[in-house]
Amino acid sequence: MKKLVGLIVFSIFLLTLFTGTSFAGKLKVGFIYVGPVGDAGWTYAHDQGRKYLEKKVKGVETVYLESVPEGSESITAMENFIATGCKVIFATSYGYMDPVQELAKRYPKVIFEHCSGYKMAKNVGIYFGRMYEPRFLSGIVAGLMTKSNKIGYVAAHPIPEVIRGINAFTLGVRKVNPNAKVIVVWTNTWYDPAAEKEAALSVLEAGCDVITQHQDSPAPQQAAEEKGAYSIGYNSDMSKFAPKAHLTAPVWNWGVIYEYIVRKVLDGTWKSEDIWWGMDKGAVGLAPFGPMVPDEVKLKVLLYQKKIEKGEFFVFQGPIKDQKGNVVVKEGEKLSDSDMLKMNFFVEGVVGTIPSK
Amino acid sequence: MRFEPREKTTPIFELNVMIISVILSFVALSILLFIQGKNPLQTYKMMFSWAFFNPIGLQGTLVKFVPLSIIGLGLLAAFKMKIWNIGGEGQYHLGAIGATLVALFWFPHLNIYLLLPVIFLVGTIAGGLWGAIPGLLKAYLGADEIVATLMLNYIGILFMEYLVYGPWKDPHGYSFPMTATFTENARLPIIWGKVHWGVVVPIILAFLMWYIFEKTTFGYEMKVIGDNKDAARYAGMSVKKNILLIMIISGMFAGLAGAIQMVGIQYRLQPNFSPGYGYTAIIVAWLSRLNPFGVVVVAFLMGGLFVGCEILQILMKLPISITYIFQGLLFTFVLLGEVYIKYRIKISKRGA
Q: Phi and psi (nearest 5°) for B302?
């Protein structure tokens, strides 16, 4: 019995050690990840952003929790951050949206930033990157590099973000090659190397000579390398996995967004904002081109990149037709942000269907 | 080296072996922590004080305790009969699906005191049906239940994904793959922080399980079948019927766990909501040495292990792999302990 009392007293002593603001002076920032930091994809890109933040901004300490399931149980995980003194929390997957809202009500002094969702509050900001811009550019590369005019798209889950990527890519392809088609195959995975490789092989065998992907594993790149085809990666530069196939990749640079937000917190000017940054601010971009990409392709991409960065060209600008040929965006019109966030149709040139639409 | 079966063992001996096995897994983990440049003792202290004595940590532990213990109790029933149900994860998902069906589509406006029991009932039945499939395959076709239950996990999870990406998708949710959230009348009242009333269910169920196995003929038959199927058949027991029955019961527990998780904390169906409780519950059932009250204790400790590992990520900056390694070590050493309990190990020199 004495031992038990001793243990409890000792534990309370430890508690006071670990809780509270023992990290005086430093702003503590917590990152919650849906996958493992070593996935080479989505979570990896966020973790690179976290490291960038720690390097660029003095007086910041970052911590993270990886592979946290989405949904309400993430609340208890995020409360660990708060209890250990984190003042800012980045929730890096859409499934944390409602948990963040609930926590924000209970902890009004903590600043929350949620990635890829749409619910805001006084102490909840949202952030995302306009990935459709580099997706469009990578479509130009694919459209110019294909010989069979069949391009494969190994798609993840049928959610607006993925559909938007497929459409932006296809618009890029058709801009330079109106005869090309983009063949979509769904894996319904975010990270499953075996399934994603199989899916990539299936479109390659169907005659596609360039493929791209939306999942976090580099397996489709490796499939293209094996079959002697070209490939376009995603999330981060995947060239080391497929040096002969990898043309380029639309990539995330979360670090610039993290730096911007945390600096605002540090100088006391943080406000709940809807941040959706594009290539002009460097939040998204293209990975370096492989040696097989000819200069005229690079020039074409650069031309559109400059136009996008200057705001002279917009990816989802009318006229845009859906798969059946109906005009969905009229000449001279642009899709609004909220329409893009809800996107649930395929543009002309996509071969495939959106499951259970 | 030879293995000789032990004639008889005392419960005290078995308990000691188990405790030593657990300690050995801690020692093995210490070596890993030491290589990582962390002080193992400090690490363990941090884990335990956070998971069991910090209010936030303890809430997390209790939240994880509920599904782990309920699924674990169900698995225990099957394991007692030496039916290896590793389909807890799928049965858990089916329970969650059943609960969502009731809460969002069947009776969304029912009074809470009527609605919650209906949710539990349908969740339990859904889990039971998912257990019945491999039960039928095993009992009447002789299929291997390990493969059947494992495969049904994937089917159950994919079925859930089909629903949330398709017909059950929240129409106001920006096409995100989630159902709408449950209304207030489909939520279990909260006791403390995130801890809901579901936390008392495992304790009630542990008594029920104990009663079934110690006081009823049904429980007795289960144990006899587990010990010797031929003898049981000879004594006139229906082995097939009992296999099916135990798979249904096992699935019902996991299904109930899924339903409680939905109304207790999740309040909606969405992909990737389970951290694999159905699989961890296998370790829980096994560590408990198939004792219902042991399951309750071990599930609590296992929940604490998860939470403790979360705090290690934050304060010690250790990767999550530590959690998986620790679970693996625990299971390995407990299985080795199991061998030691069953067999005496004799080291004999050749020619001696």
A: -70, -40
Rounded to whole angstroms, the maximal C-alpha distance in chain A is 82
Q: Token pair of A54, please?
A: 């720690």
Considering CB atoms only, which of B175, B274, B317 is closest to A160? Answer: B175
Question: Given this model, what pLDDT does residue B349 score?
Answer: 66
Whether residue A195 lies within 8 A of chain B, CB to CB, comes out as: no
Residues of B in contact with A74 (CB under 8 A): none
CB contact under 8 A, A72 and B272: no
CATH superfamily of A132-249+287-351: Response regulator (3.40.50.2300)
**Between the CA of residue B264 and those of A73, A148, B247, B306, what are the distances in Å?**
10, 54, 25, 19
- What's the ipTM? 0.86
The CATH topology of domain A2-129+254-281 is Rossmann fold (3.40.50)
pLDDT for the residue numbered B214: 92
SS3 label, residue A227: helix
Query: What 3-state DSSP class applies to B288?
Result: coil
A320 forms bridges with which residues in the sheet? A329
Contact partners, residue A45, CB within 8 Å, separation at least 6: A235, A236, A251, A252, A254
Structure confidence by residue, pLDDT tens digits, A11-37 = 554 554 444 444 458 999 999 999 889
Q: Which helix or strand (DSSP H or E) is residue A60 part of?
A: strand A60-65
| Rounded Cα–Cα distance for residues A78 and A70 (Å) | 11
pLDDT in tens, B165-212: 889 988 887 778 889 999 999 999 999 988 999 999 999 999 999 999
Same fold across A2-129+254-281 and A132-249+287-351: yes
- Contact (CB, 8 A) for B256 and B121: no
